[in-house]
Amino acid sequence: MAARTVASLLKTSLGPKGMDKMLVSPDGDVIITNDGATILEKMEIHHQTAKLLAELSASQDNEIGDGTTGVVVLAGAILEQAQKLLDKGIHPLKIADGFERACEIAVKRVNEISEDLDISKNNYEFLRKCATTALGSKVVSKC
Prior knowledge:
It is built from 6 helices and 2 strands. It is mostly helical.
């Protein structure tokens, strides 16, 4: 429940209409941000599972540098679905196995799509197509 609460908090800061959060430290410093990594870094989280979400966000920031809010919101959604399955009496190991299998299927499908589209840094035509906008199909930057 604590982890899902943290994910719900960050969910409201996601996207172009995401809301900023005002964080006030014990000594009175005020920070206004909608950056998930900053919000989690400044929060005092005591619950172990909620701390795992903060660590997940930090790991995402260190490895990729983006998507910190998205991974927390996704993890929160997965936890919410897992709770529904637990409430139905499904054993936690079965739930974990199901999520693992779903991950394998998703990765396989993403790999199939990437092969069908020939996504590579040397495929200039595809990169050019990705760089065009939906409005007027103008090239944003030259490949």
